[in-house]
Design goal:
With about 280 residues, this protein is α/β, with parallel strands linked by helices. It folds into 2 domains: about 40 residues; about 220 residues. Helix content is about 20%, strand content about 35%. The protein has 3 helices and 23 strands. The strands form 5 sheets. Strands 2-1-3-6-11-14-17-20-23 form a 9-stranded parallel beta sheet. Strand 8 and strand 9 form a beta hairpin. The radius of gyration is 28 Å and the shape is elongated.
Length: about 280
């Protein structure tokens, strides 16, 4: 059995060992604290810059990218992957690789993000092949539908992109939904702001009896739709704004062409009083 003196000697030895261990680590701890303080000071001194950087998210989408970085300024394989990686309410810029089909295979909730989508380097390389944005078609129990951009609260802009809405039905026995036959999803009482420049919009050459033309956005459910569209070519059974039976729309347009059944607004006569257009 150890004596009291021996116990005190062991305790002192343990304390001395702990002190030696601390002293051996003190310089490392001090360096870590200094680095943390430097980082904090830099953050506190440039809050505007930090917020601006975090609030802007940019990426290039290439479905054939072998090793996507999946960070802002980097590469992604799909549009949905890029938008999903960005903070909610951010300003998101999507650069689509030219000569590729960029398919939307699930609904993409925007959740307050401002969205800009364009063909990468279109101003530097205007002769590059198109970047094709194509929502896939699926069928539920009642109708055929597009996968869409949903929960839109901020502006969405498309520039120099081919938007292919000509997809065939997933279930030929069902109609194509007028509400879900659009690229931008709707919400009751929502506001939809769409900007389009130098885009090609493709609809199906023919549609079944009872179906409606595909559209970029549909006016329904007390929505307020605002669209500015310039230098775009629409062809096939497609319209920029679908039915406006229970909504209002403001449309500003110039230098667009329409062929093969395409139109700017579905049945503008029936929309009289709910449509303001130049």
């Amino acid at each position: 059995m150890t004596t009291t003196a021996e116990q005190l000697t062991e305790a002192i030895a343990a304390l001395n060992g702990a002190a030696a261990a601390y002293n051996g680590k003190k310089a490392e701890i001090d360096d870590a604290l200094a680095a943390a303080q430097t980082g904090y000071d830099a953050l506190a001194g440039d809050l505007r810059g930090v917020v601006a950087q975090e609030g802007n998210f940019v990426g290039t989408v290439d479905p054939d990218e072998a090793d996507p970085t999946r960070v802002s300024g980097g590469t992604f394989k799909t549009i949905g992957e890029l938008i999903g990686a960005s903070p909610a309410n951010a300003c998101v810029t999507v650069r689509l690789a030219p000569g590729k089909v960029h398919e939307i295979t699930a609904d993409i909730p925007l959740r307050g993000r401002t969205l800009t989508i364009y063909r990468k380097d279109y101003w530097l390389n205007p002769a590059d092949p198109p970047a094709i944005l194509r929502p896939a078609v699926y069928a539920d129990a009642t109708a055929n539908r597009f996968y869409q951009f949903t929960d839109q609260r901020q502006p969405v802009r498309f520039t120099n992109v081919t938007i292919d809405l000509s997809g065939t039905k997933d279930n030929a026995a069902l109609p194509f939904s007028g509400v879900a036959g659009s690229l931008i999803g709707f919400s009751h009482g929502g506001i939809r702001q769409i900007e389009m420049g130098a885009c090609e919009v493709l609809g199906p050459a023919t549609i079944d009896a009872g179906d409606v033309a595909r559209n970029i956005v549909t006016g329904i459910g007390a929505q307020a739709v605002s669209m500015a569209i310039s230098g775009c070519n629409l062809s096939g059974n497609v319209v920029a704004i679908g039915a406006a039976a229970s909504s209002a729309a403001i449309v500003s347009h110039t230098n667009n062409t329409f062929a093969g059944g395409a139109a700017l607004v579905a049945d503008p006569t029936a929309s009289a009083g709910r449509l303001l257009m130049n």
